[in-house]
Amino acid sequence: MSTSKSKTKAKAKHDVKAKAKSKSKSKSMKSSKIRFEIDGKECTAKPGQTIVEAARDNGVYIPVLCWYEGMEPAGICRMCMVKVGGRTMPGCTTPVAEGMIIESDVPELEDMRKAMVEMLFVEGNHLCPTCEKSGNCDLQALGYRYRMMVPRFPYQFPLRLVDATYTKIMIDNNRCVQCRRCIRGITTKDGRHVFAMTKRSGKSTIVADRELEAKISDALAKKAMDQCPVGAILKKETGFALPIGRRKYDKAPIGTEVHK
Ligand code: SF4
Ligand code: FES
Questions:
Q1: For residue 67, how far is its CA from the centre of ligand 2 (angstroms)?
Q2: Which ligand is located closest to the Cα atom of residue 234?
Q3: What's the CATH number where 38 sits?
Q4: Which of these, 30, 60, 83, 117, could form a disulfide with 103 (CB 3.0-4.6 Å)?
């Protein structure tokens, strides 16, 4: 047998093997779907998905505040708490496992979430009628979802910093819920964080790096405003571009974008 013939034979053998390998790989990928249940609904998830992500893919809304699609979850706000086997855990940081039975839409958790929304309203100064983010605000939308009328906790009326001395944006800490979406999600092209948190505990304040902030593009300033779940970061010179009444949550309540 010539050398070229034996080479062709070896290549054909290799191709058959590779085909079989990729077939079995795609088969195992298909069978690697995770099966789980949430509020009695049978669902499937991709390996590595968190409970919040998998629930959304299956048309089940779990309320979130610090979680943002495409952003590394941080487990800060605790709005997404669910019950797994009787234990309460954050849905945004817990990966789904085979056979999990998850409870989310149950009175105990819903009341806990409502209480958390109320706490956020009383610990800051949220004056929705005068806020540029009204109708686009996740906290306001959650307040409507939970039919919050008068919070069960006393108002704190804290004295918080409003800083309009930045170039592209302004920061109103009265509205900040300290979800850190701005810190995690807004970086320059070379990976530097534009926002940071100063001080601790009840005195925590969101600030921006003045040098970086002055150089951010309009698109990044808008992204910062859009990713902030409330009206704590506003882009300058674009107030009320979309009139109240035609905004995201004016059209449909929060959660309806997920429910199938
Ligand atoms: S400014 Fe907005 S995005 Fe940043 S921590 Fe406060 S609420 Fe979250
Ligand atoms: S959304 Fe899970 S802790 Fe905030």
A1: 5
A2: 1
A3: 3.10.20.740
A4: 83
